[in-house]
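Cross-check.
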Amino acid sequence: MKTFLKILGGFLAGAVAGLLLAGAGGVLFGGMSCSEFLGALSALGWAEALGIALLSIVLFFVCMVLHVALHEAGHLVCGLATGYRFVSFRIFSLTLVRQDGCLRLKRYRLAGTGGQCLLEPSEGNDGRIPVFWYNAGGVLANLLVSAVALFLWLLPGEQPLPLSLFLLLLALSGFFLAVLNGFPMKVGGMPNDAYNIRLLRNSVDNRRLMCLQLRVAARVLAGLRPGELPGEWFFHLKEVDYANPFQVASALLDVSWLEDVGEWEEAYARLEAAYVHRHELPEVFGLEVCSELLFTALATGRGQQADQLLTPRLRRYLEQYKTVGSTRQRVLFAIALCLEHDEARARDILRIVEAQSDRYLMQGEVAMDVALMHEMLARQSPDKA
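Predicted model, tokenized:
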């Protein structure tokens, strides 16, 4: 019943939003007054009004999907034009990746994002790498398409209602996304494009960190484990500013390298320091810190600390995103093996990850996680490993 009410509430909210957006467009751009819009609305029969509302919902959804794709395409075009190389292109969970010299289609989700265009910078002076166009390309694409849609909507002459609504909603949704990404802010705790541009343009260190993170991501996606990457790519920060997303991402990459080479105490100490600042991070980063701290606690024999870290919220997060990548499966494996003492379930998780390893996006991450699970299993049950 609760699910049905949520669906019904979402439908009604979408219907109202569709009508309001259509009305706002007419008032702002069509020369219609508010009273004229309300009069036209009141003259509609309930069936006609419902039909327009349904059409508005469908078209608004279509327009938003189109603009997410256009936004990421803008990043892609502007990034390639300024010297970056293609790595992956994601719209919602559908991801096109370059692996083994060919393009492959996979599924991958990242909480808090509708898409992602991952490119690799060219070799050279990382502090002087161009950052504006790559980051601004999405907003520019949204603005360009919205301007064209608005121009076509304003052309004189009668237009069919579906076409008129589509052009209007395409323009408004694009302007909305452009504003959402074009003014420096954090959306759901995550920095938007303009926020990243501001951080990058004002700091050579941030540009270097961004370049290193993109290079690490490209290598790990291609199949290299973090521990196989050059050590000089890591540990560039003496202290971490937890308000700076580039520094936080760099600190988490350092932990991945430490885990992969078996430096568990150092990894635990760094994660424990980050855990103190978890409320300063976007929720997904905070949950990742908690899950990795839990894993390193179990890897270093700190079962009591791990048990305290395993909150209902963290377990829900791990279960919700366990099919996205192998890292959550690795943590669930450790929980089953070391906290719940359910070796059979742990082995099932390991078998699933090994059987589906080719489906995951970050191939080097999968190789690391499988190896870590085998190591943990060997320590727990040396006669069965």
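Residues 204-380 form one domain. Confidence is low (pLDDT under 50) at residues 1-8. Passed to J.P. for a second look.
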